[in-house]
Amino acid sequence: MSAIYPPASAAVAAAPDRIEFSRLKAILVGSLGNLVEWYDFYCYAAFSLYFSSSFFPSSDPVAQSMSTAAIFALGFFIRPVGGLLFGYIGDRHGRRLALMASVLLMCGGSLLIACSPTYAAVGVWAPAILLFARLLQGLSLGGEYGSSATYLSEMATSKHRGFYASFQYVTLIGGQLTALVVLLVLQNFVLDAAQLKAWGWRIPFFIGALLAIVALVMRSDLPETQAFQAEKKRNKDRMGGFKLLLQHPRECLIVIGLTMGGTLAFYVYTTYMQKFLKLSVGLTDAQTTAVSAASLVFAALLQPIYGALSDRIGRKPLLLGFAVLGTIFTVPLLTALRHAQGPYEAFGLIACAWLIVSGYTSINAVVKAELFPASIRATGVGVPYAIAVSVFGGTAEYIALWFKQQGMESGFYWYATAVIACSLLVYLLMRDTRQHSRIDAEAAHH
Questions:
Q1: pLDDT of residue 13
Q2: pLDDT in tens, 384-430
Q3: How far apart are CA 275 and CA 45, in angstroms?
Q4: Cα separation, 101 vs 107, whole angstroms
Q5: How far apart are CA 215 and CA 106, in angstroms?
Q6: b or e along 223-246 (b: 16 or more beta carbons within 10 Å of the residue's beta carbon)?
Q7: Helix 396-405 crosses helix 409-429 at what angle (to 10 degrees)?
Q8: Taking the model in full, what pTM does it have?
Q9: What distance in Å separates the CA atoms of residue 257 and residue 418, rounded to the nearest whole number?
């Protein structure tokens, strides 16, 4: 049975230390489940260089990578459906149930990839099975983002909401990092390249399925948020659903606009960066993995710092800083990175990029949660975000590889700059959600 989070006034009066510890524990458990979800999802990107030949036989490694990236993108296009499905569960039946259901579905997708037959064994059925597994994972992740962003934002205290909500991206990045650490261990201590290509790529997906079961057990004991309990008691017949979401068109458009530039920048410096370092910069497999892992550690450390800063100066200054600097420096940074002399220079340039991108990643979840009322919060955060990520994030790697194949690699740098500039317009026009938070307004009302 899950604990019911008590009303703030009674809880604090009864046992402030215990309740505060309970809040922190819930945020930690919610965050760790998020890490497992993103580890499972990003194992695909981290190990795609090894398993792409098993599903897409071709003598052209760029064409092979494009086929794998296409399925990666398709896994994103199903995410709005996941956002709607799990958002409805989260808004109607509780954040905890949505978090449990999403991680269970991720377990199924990872297990299916781990057991998938190869092209040599079953022909075209192999990529079809891979696609189906990725669609399951995309559904799961579409629900995970809105549910976890809502849960962490509602569970956090008003004064430190930016700091605590930033741990969604700490664990999101941590999931990618864990996938890379598994890759590093397998590359350097367990298997050689031939073994990794033959069967070793299956190991991380088995690990992911097991971790998802652990996360499911942990999440089953999470307390429900006070915001959901209060709204359910007050308004139980009008919670969640697509019709209710349509009553908030302005907020939905803001979420899409503020997400498009940030999500594209995020995927440029995470999933695509592995391919870029190998195919364009010319680093070895081991150097590529090491630079990617080190830059993710740096990025994860920045998130709570920026999140805490947003609690002091507001959310809008950080978003504006990201967009202005991203518009100015994306082309120079990626151009310099393309000509980097070795892994250390590459890491330094990616670290500079993260100093910019973290202005978005650290606080985007809490900004979205603060825009919507509790009755539609999980759906409102999840669905428009998933639409923006599907269009701009999930396609980033494929578009970048297309530009490269056409011999116009720098064209992608300008495309990324243009998308970030569009988000800048949204940031200029929107209100600072720290001063105009729906979560705080509801808490004061209740």
A1: 35
A2: 999 999 889 878 888 988 898 888 888 999 999 999 999 999 999 99
A3: 9
A4: 10
A5: 11
A6: bbbbbbbbbbeeeeeebbbeebbe
A7: 150
A8: 0.84
A9: 13
Give the per-residue pLDDT at 62: 64
Residue 64 has what pLDDT? Answer: 63
For 142-192, write each residue's pLDDT tens digit: 888 889 989 988 888 888 899 988 988 899 889 988 988 898 889 888 888
CA atoms within 13 A on the CB side of 185: 8
Regions in the chain scoring below 50 on pLDDT: 1-19
Q: How far is CA 188 from CA 51, 102, 205, 294, 344, in A?
A: 18, 33, 19, 16, 20
Query: How large is the C-alpha radius of gyration of the chain?
Result: 21
CA distance 379 to 188: 43
The two three-digit tokens of residue 422, written as one number: 């569009």
Residue 434 near residue 315 (C-beta atoms within 8 A): yes
Interhelix angle 167-185/203-219, nearest 10 degrees? 150
Q: What is the pLDDT of residue 17?
A: 40
C-alpha closest to that of 143 among 97, 109, 98: 98
Length reported for the chain: 446
Phi, psi of 102 (to 5 degrees): -65, -40
Task: Identify whether the C-beta of residue 440 lies closer than 8 Å to the C-beta of residue 371.
Answer: no
Residue 354: other Cβ atoms inside 10 A? 23
What CATH architecture applies to the domain 23-227+243-440? Up-down Bundle (1.20)
- If we measure between CA atoms, which residue out of 362, 307, 5 comes closest to residue 160? 307
